[in-house]
Amino acid sequence: MSSTQPHFVVLAEFHLKEGQVPAFLALAHNDASESLANEEGCLTFDVLTPEGSDNVVVLHEVYRDRDAFEHHMQMPHYAPFKEGSAPLLDGEPNVRFFYTAIRPE
User: Fold this and answer.
1) Which residue in 4, 10, 49, 91 could disulfide with 61, CB within 3.0 to 4.6 Å?
2) From CA 31, how far away is CA 103, in angstroms rounded?
3) Residues with Cβ < 8 Å from 61, sequence gap 6 or more?
4) How many CA atoms lie within 13 A of 48 on its CB side?
5) Is residue 77 exposed (0-12), middle (13-18) or buried (19+ Cβ within 10 Å)?
6) Is 0.70 topped by the overall pTM?
């Protein structure tokens, strides 16, 4: 990643209903692989499971900029993730947005 231009970072934490993690992971991994393969502005897309949390999945996504993230949400592979994951969730996801901090000179 470039150290001279901030990237747009998304951290999305999903709490899942009991027994729904495998189905959610399938959807999340498909979204991740399609994003990395088909979106020039998607630089990183990690699907993470926190240590000690059986029903939590975190998505760590890095985009070139905010526009690249907005583009991601319009891609054909995003809708199946969004629609398919909704019934698996135990509450609303916690989604936070960041910019990478540029090291001062």
Assistant:
1) 10
2) 31
3) 9, 10, 11, 12, 35, 42, 44, 45, 46, 69, 72
4) 14
5) middle
6) yes
Alpha-carbon torsion (72, 78, 81, 82), positive or negative: positive
Alpha-carbon distance 64 to 9, whole Å? 9
20 DSSP assignment: -
Q: Which residues touch 29 (CB under 8 Å, ≥6 apart)?
A: 47
Per-residue pLDDT tens digits of the chain, which is 105 residues long:
445 789 999 999 999 999 999 999 999 999 999 999 999 999 999 999 999 999 999 999 999 999 999 999 999 999 999 999 999 999 999 999 999 998 888
Residue 65 amino acid letter: D
DSSP structure string for 28-88: HHHHHHHHHHH-TTEEEEEEE--TT-TTEEEEEEEESSHHHHHHHTTSTTHHHHHHHHGGG
